[in-house]
Every structure is written in structure tokens, then in C-alpha cells.
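COURSE: Structural Biology Practicum
ASSIGNMENT: Worksheet 4, Part C
STUDENT ID: 0417
INSTRUCTIONS: Below are two proteins. For each, the amino acid sequence is given first, followed by its C-alpha cell string. Answer the questions at the end about the second protein only.

PROTEIN I
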Amino acid sequence: MPVLVASDLDRTLIYSSAALALTMPDARAPRLLCVEVHESRPLSYLTETAAQLLTDLADTAVFVPATTRTRKQYLRINLPGPAPTYAVCANGGHLLVDGVSDGDWHRRVLARLADECASLAEVQEHLLRTADPAWVRKHRVAEDLFAYLVVERELLPEEWVKELAAWAAGRGWAVSLQGRKLYAVPKPLTKSAAVREVARRTGADLVLGAGDSLLDADLLHAVDRGWRPGHGELADTGWTAPGIAALPERGVLAGERIVREFLRAARAPR
């Protein structure tokens, strides 16, 4: 029976320059591999050691990237090793099979959203009306499924975020602040549902996972064993759950540790 490894990407496995957290002396910094280029500029990295471990993992388990990124944003990432057969994009809104969205899965997601939460249009209108242009840089909609703002983090009022979260919760939506992006996502739109579908299709009897943000909490609740890095929303709030290890590492070295833990657990006798 195969092992399935479902992992968030940004600030879990791959890191922007701003998120690397290279606090060691320069001469001791790890060698990095660029895995994403956007508009002709390098954007995301992992360590070369993590790259080799991820390649080894592909020989041992079914590796499933599980990201809030849109399909277009995900497909510009060039991870080491063979291309994953399955990938979860748009926080579970799209299940990619060999790079192509599974139409049946997407229709099921849309039906559930229509039944269980307020519309995207209502949330968009609220964000446009209440968010102050003084600290909002961009309003964005992802895959016609959820919305996010690009903000000036140091100017963003904490009280406004709390009020937005309370307003959204009453309408079946969740709010997550990750770096300079503030997400509003329907609660029924989950990575865990898509990962469970992949586990069903592959017959996996052990599911491992990792993530750093509140949008990953449902995924971590659904796995048999999981890890979270020492940074991010989950670490900042002290979030824990049975079977989830809180790692001390922060930044790109946390990503390396997570892949090492994946490989160790996937290879362990069962």
C-alpha cells in the first residue's frame, strides 16, 4: 500500500528570498536551488539538500503538492524529481491530474460552495468597502473561488483583521494572513478534501502532511502524521494537534527538515 505525502508549498517546502531566514554566518549558509522564476526573476528556493531528499521521496511515496496557489501560479514551480501525478491547487478547488484539472472534482467543489457558504461576490464587496487603500496594494480573486488582498503589513490594523474574521465566519468563510497576503477563503474549500480523494484513488494507507498557515490546519487534522515549521500562523498561535510535530527550525532549513521527516516516515517499517 503506498504512502501519500501531501505538503503545502510556500513557506513550508519552498521559500522566497524574504522568507529564507538565513540567520547563520554567510559562510555557513546552505546552498540554494531556485525552483520558481516569475517575470524573468528568481522567486522561490529550497536547499540543495532538500532538493535531493525530495527526489528520493518520489521513489518512496506519492508526493502531492497541496497549495492555495492558482493553477497558473503552481505550474510555474519546477520542483526537483519527477512531476507529481496529482496536485491540489486553489486550496482544494482544483485537483490536477498530470497537470490538468479534474472537471468532475471541480464541479463537486462548486456545488458544495453554493450550498454551504456566502457568495464570493458578497465577500468581494465587503473587502472593497472596508479595506483602506492606505494599506491595500492589490485586490485579487483566485480562480473565481476566493479573494485575497496584498497589503502593507506594517500598516494593516490588527483590529480590522479580527473584525473581518468574525464577519467572514458568520458567512462560512475563513481569514488567513500570510506575509503580505490576506486571504478570505470559503470554509468548505479545503486541501484535506482533495487529499482524501487522492488517497482514495491511490489506495494509500498512510498519509503524511505539512503546512505552516491556518489554511493548512484542516489538512494537518486529516493526516496520520504531520509537521509544522517554527514560523507561520500555526507556530505564532501555538497550534497543535494529535500526531503533529512542531519543529524548531524556521525558514528554508525548516523546509529541509520537513522533507527529511517525510522520507524517514515513508521508509519506516509498517
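PROTEIN II
(use this one for the questions)
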Amino acid sequence: MTYTVGQVSGFAGVTVRTLHHYDRTGLLAPSERSAAGYRLYSEADLARLQQILFYRELGFSLEEIAAILENPQANAIDQLRARHKLLSEQIGRLRRLVEVAERAMEVQETGVALTPGERFDVFGEVAFDLSYATEAALKWRDSDKHRQSLASAAAHSKDDWRCIMSELAEWRRELFVVFDGGEPADGERAMDLAEAHRGHLDRWFMSCPPETHVRVADDFATDPRAFALLVPPSEQRPGLAAYVRAAVRANAARQGLADAGEEVR
């Protein structure tokens, strides 16, 4: 039994133009022609077309498919293994992108409820980087503290944020005096400033025991976007982020946290 190009197009779900192209390139030449010269496809042709469509669905190029069909036993298994590896990697990337998009939506939905003008008025140079906020949401996605922090941020009023930013500005002024004055990060004043910052987080955002504070400070020292939430770039000094982390760790050790000098996980 044979089938016309129109019939094959209908039940195979490909266009007539595609079948013509497969014929021209030699990928799928119909076994017969009618008296009028029309293409006629046999059952064997349809089986070959099914193979072509299978490999196309997996993302193989027509050239790759032709090579596989030329010598299926020699080419198919290696090609399929390589394609399986590539598709697995693509699936992993797509899953991560989906997760990033979901977290970005959460960040947007639970973010600070201020207009752009109010944000500038309240925060000034302090910038909220969406890419950092999204990565933080991914990093701490299983953390109740992170969810608590987001919920607290979303609940704060404009006046709350004015108070928060005023506290931070005063804290920074004291930090600069201590840092610029060359006082050690494990000195009393630096550790007191670290404790003041821990209290600030605890009061306004989330429960912040010393071990949590160490993790926050680690982000300050390793990610400029995180530190920019604490100290605007125009006010930063070389080594300041590392100094803050050292002071936080010294304060945590002062409060009895074991291994405060090491990265806390």
C-alpha cells in the first residue's frame, strides 16, 4: 500500500514542504511515483519518516540524522548517548531557570511596598539588586529566617524604613570612625558595632543569633551586591567588608559561638 504526500503530511503531522525538502536532500525519497509523477510513500518509507521525526524531536540536525540512518548500528548509540547527556544538561539548566524565575516573582511580590520615588527618598544610594535578591532567595530557600526576613521587609511602612535607614546611617558613621582609626576588628568597639548590627537585624528583620550573623557577614565579604545593602559603594573603603566580617566573627566568638573564626554553614 502506498500513500500520497498529502496523506503522509496529514497523519505524520509534517508539512508537504518538509516532505519535499526531505526528498530533495535524499533524507526521505519516496519509493514510488504515480503515472502523473506524484510522490508515493510505502510502509518502509513511513517507518523511515518515523525515525527521522524521532531524531528531530531529540534535536538532531538533518545531517546528523542522515549519518545515523546511513549506518544505524555504527552511529545511533553513540549519538543517542551524546544527545542524552546534552538534553540532561539542558533540563538541569531549564529547571534552574524556572526556579530563579519563581524566586524572582516571590521577591517582587514580597518586596518593599514603596513607589520608585519613595524608594529613592528613603534608601538614597542603597541599591536593591534583583539578581542578588533572587540568588539569595535560591540560596536560602529552605531557611525559615529568610522567609521571615522577606515577610518583615514587606510589612514595614515607609516610616519604618526611614527609621531603619537612619539607624544604619548612624551605625555606618561609627563604623567609619573605628575602621579609619585603625582599631582592630577584634577590638571592643568593632565587636560592639557588630553586636549593634546583629541587634538591628534581629529587631527589624529576623531572629539573628550569632551563627546567623556570621553567615550574613560572610555574604558581605564575598558578594559586593550584599555589602552594598549595608554600605553604599560611594562610602566603601578597601578592606571594609572583610573588616566587618572579622568583627562579626570576633563578636560571635565573644558570645561563645564555637568555631566562629571558620565559615559557618
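ANSWER KEY EXCERPT:
Q1: The chain has a mean pLDDT of 82.
Q2: The longest strand covers residues 39-41.
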